[in-house]
Specification:
By secondary structure, the protein is of the alpha+beta class. Helices cover 26% and strands 35% of the residues. The chain is built from six helices and 13 strands. The chain has helices at 26-32, 54-64, 122-125, 193-201, 205-220, 224-239, and strands spanning 14-19, 35-42, 45-53, 70-74, 77-88, 95-101, 109-118, 130-133, 137-142, 150-154, 164-166, 177-178, 185-190. A six-stranded mixed β-barrel has the order 1-3-2-6-5-4. A four-stranded mixed beta sheet has the order 10-7-9-12, with no helix packed on it. A hairpin with a 2-residue loop joins strand 2 (35-42) and strand 3 (45-53).
Length: 240
């Protein structure tokens, strides 16, 4: 059997909960009393229907997210768990239900981790560009105790509009792997709108004409070869 609680040499956030007896419509009343309904489950334990203080949960959730192990005390038992899923009120954004998952501590699990951007990109500061965050969170895989709370990305290396930060550039702790294509873009800096307009204006007239013709061909469903033949026929008619 998996031990219910394992001590680590690092500080672990903790929460207290108790077995919930009320279900159905009575849960709404409990929410008004400041209690959050939740469930605890895992591959080695029996599902437990629990409740805990809403404000305490929000404070811990803000700090731990869904990728940090926390110690959950249910009555006299303790469990090392992850906050697995949180349902929120669509109007207030407040949590209305939470799932706690007790993983097998010796097996890798997947979790979604937020990406935090730091530093100052020269392409923004000196060239007036805009930072585009292609990925704001990422799935990672690791042992529960090794899951990062967040991944910090320094954007100082974005000096030109050609520079980019890829998934493979992320600095992950040992034992942590990203579950996305290593060449996927995490962040880039795009040029200001005025520069984009100038680039468009600098395009050769022939190139612009070709773009218009290609767009028309797509709309009409005509093949380029058919369009070319029509032009040749028109030129022949004019020369007669």
């Amino acid at each position: 059997m998996q031990p219910r609680h394992v001590q680590f040499n690092v500080f672990m956030l903790s929460l207290k909960a108790k077995i919930r007896k009320e279900i159905g419509k009575k849960v709404k009343k409990r929410r008004k009393q400041g209690l959050l309904p939740a469930v605890l489950y895992g591959p080695k334990i029996k599902n437990l229907i629990i409740e805990l203080d809403s404000k305490e949960f929000e404070s811990i959730y803000k700090e731990a997210g869904e990728s940090s192990l926390i110690s959950l005390q249910v009555d006299n038992d303790k469990f090392s768990v992850l906050i697995h899923e949180v349902k929120k009120d669509p109007l207030t954004g407040k949590p209305i239900h939470a799932d706690f998952y007790q993983p097998i501590l010796t097996e890798e699990v997947e979790a979604t981790v937020s990406i935090v951007f730091e530093g100052e990109a020269l392409a923004i500061k000196e060239l007036g560009g805009t930072l585009v965050r292609e990925i704001s969170e990422i799935e990672v895989k690791a042992l529960p105790k090794d899951l990062p709370h967040e991944i910090k990305v320094n954007i100082d290396g974005l000096k030109t509009f050609d520079d980019e930060i890829l998934v493979k550039d992320l600095k992950l702790s040992e034992g942590v792997t990203a579950q996305r294509d290593k060449n996927e873009i995490v962040a880039v800096v795009t040029p200001p709108e005025t520069e984009k307009i100038e680039e468009e204006l600098e395009k050769p007239v022939e190139e612009k004409v070709e773009e218009v013709e290609e767009a028309e061909e797509k709309e009409e469903g005509e093949k380029p070869e058919e369009k070319k033949e029509e032009k040749e026929e028109e030129n022949e008619e004019k020369s007669k």
